[in-house]
């Protein structure tokens, strides 16, 4: 057997071989396209999905950013997502905004990378804030998505400044309008989400939906109106017809422009009632 003597090149060659192998691996990794590793849940563009992003595409409406004259007496709010990036909360507070909903999650794999800045920032300037979940009923169960939402910022605390979480039910940005579900199947999915949310937080979540989508995808179910507060998008001079089961709305999203300041909303009541909703 050969003996390695001082000055032998074999250890150096061995080390060089290892380095070259590592560089080859690194080069391969860098040249592999990001698309080769698909997202869990198959969510191609969650940063483009926010409350109302699909409503305006499917239902249209006027969204000038100006508040309708019929709602001047109610409390002003905004909703934001990663689409807005870091939000200037002190500026919004100075303009009269007093509450905010922040997108936390979508499906069971996406979390808003700006969530902390948006959720804590709105709270720190004095706003009452809440989180919302963009639902993908075709990807996983309602319970799975409720748990993911709660575990990633969608919980609730009785501090007087945290609203119950909101479930965003709207048109599918990735395929079939109703996510491949029958009306009864969609109602069951929503019940699975809402009951799981209540069992873990003690609160009934707010439901965000349009009357048109609700009629199409739940058969205009009246199963939730007596329990879950309604957050309704409609971009015109009034709220218009409500989904079955709800005698009144709690929040009206009256713009969906995707602007840097977020979409604007009105709470249907005075500031003390908004705080009562937060307190439960």
Task: Walk me through the structure.
It is an enzyme of class 3 (hydrolase). Its EC number is 3.2.1.17. InterPro entries: GH, Glyco_hydro_25, Glyco_hydro_25_AS, Glyco_hydro_fam25_subgr. Keywords: Glycosidase, Hydrolase, Signal. The chain is α/β, with parallel strands linked by helices and 280 residues long. It has helices spanning 10-31, 55-59, 89-94, 115-124, 142-154, 183-201, 211-218, 271-279; strands spanning 75-80, 99-106, 110-111, 128-134, 166-168, 206-208, 230-233, 251-253, 263-267. It has one domain (46-279): TIM Barrel (Alpha-Beta Barrel). The chain is built from 8 helices and 9 strands. An 8-stranded mixed barrel has the order 1-2-4-5-6-7-8-9. β6, α7 (211-218) and β7 (230-233) form a beta-alpha-beta unit.
Order of strands in the sheet with most strands: 1-2-4-5-6-7-8-9
Shape category:
globular
Mean pLDDT: 81
Instruction: Please estimate the helix content.
Output: 25-40%
At CATH level 2, the architecture is: Alpha-Beta Barrel
CATH superfamily: Glycosidases
Pick out the low-confidence regions: 1-40, 56-64
- Summed up, the helix count is 8
- How many beta strands in the DSSP annotation? 9
Sheet with the most strands? 8 strands, mixed, barrel
Number of domains: 1
Strand content: 5-15%
* Class inferred from helices and paired strands: alpha/beta
Q: What string, H for helix and E for strand, traces the elements in order?
A: HHEHEEHEHEHEHEEEH
Q: According to CATH, what is the class?
A: Alpha Beta
CATH overall fold name: TIM Barrel
CA radius of gyration is: 24 Å
Distance between the termini: 82 Å
